[in-house]
Amino acid sequence: MRFAADVSDLELADYQRAVRLLLRHPLVTAIWPDERALPRVRRFAADLRRDLSEAFGYRLELHGTAARLVRTADALNPDCPAISRTGRPFDRQRYAYLALCLATLGRAGIQISLTELADQVAGDANRIPALGLDADQGTDRRAFVDAVAWLEERGVLRVADGSSATWARDPNAGEALYDVARDAVFALFRPPRVLQHIDSVAALLERSLSNSGNAERRAAAQAARRAAVERSVVYYDDVPAEIGNHLRGQALAEDLHRLTGLRLERRAEGVLLVDTVGWSAERFPGTGSVAQAAVLLAVAIGDRVSDPDGRRARRVPAPHPNDRQAALTAAADTGLPESRAVLADPPPAPVEADEPDEHSGERRMPLITDSFLREATGEILRSYGSAFGATWHADPDRLRAEAVSLLARFGAVVPVPGGVLARPLIGRYRNTVAQVRQRTLF
């Protein structure tokens, strides 16, 4: 028993809850994600610090009224953006304002007014080409308030008086005064490298390598555990062979169950950690119109791929995971100052062929065309009309796009020009009879 060795059987469930808490919420404050979270982390602090370091290579830091799990990133991940209170992902402008807010709060005292915070952020933003902050402009003001609200929600800023909502409508009609949780400020921004010294976002993923065989095996085991808890599904084809070997081993499943209380499901193509306790921020299948459309599309895609009487789905070369990382790196690096920007070569375009080459080693997946997806979405709306609101009936393309995006986030499909590639997870929904709860009209 390598993990939770000093935790009694009576406390094991509480310990596993604390592990899941930190894996989902790397920042824990007096109020975020709730008032019980920080005491739960402190209760098992020593065991958590040791186990999270050994199992995943993570570092747990405690700062007075905040705890921070400093994670090791193996790849750039665009699927977990900061979300505003209105449910919209942050854009570049909001991320920039958030970073400038943290820089200002790092220099601030224990209290700051919203106007003062906006003035100082504007001073920095107006020196950055194509950014700027004009509090008299509604778009700038709303983006700034979204960044401040993100900090409010996590307890980094606490309203002592007033309201940011009034200020957002009219800066001259309202004001807000905040208490600054300095422990949370310092815990929140913890870059692994000095940002002024890097020339590409890829440098944030770099780490020193050891020549020791034992150290390399330990690092591969940690990377395998990280992949299992951080990704919805891990395909063996998407990871290096040494990590795949650990994913196939029985020890990994036992370790993760001991740490998290969750079961690892293993199939011929890969593994996934089954969420039986509502741990994940987003689940599939889930609730809501987009989630319902996504699972119905998954059924249609699965039937299309395996239909023995229909036209065979053409298989095309799958994009290599490194190509996606190269594209994400290039996109992130466009935010560097022009004098230091790194121009990355675009990823090579996939070459399509009708038949697989058995000796090339290429990964080929069934291509599901956009036309099929549009037809399937239209059929879903016709068959389950009252389950989807008038907004979706008026804009089926948006419903299709959001459902496909959800399937991509969970590793069920890979978007490519002209459609999507079906991944093995789709097979779980083949021949499924789906039932959609109808809307109550009265």
Automatic annotation (TrEMBL):
Pfam families (UniProt xref): DUF2398 (PF09661)
InterPro entries, per the entry: CHP02678
Tree of life domain: Bacteria
Location of region: Disordered: 339-362
Protein known as: TIGR02678 family protein
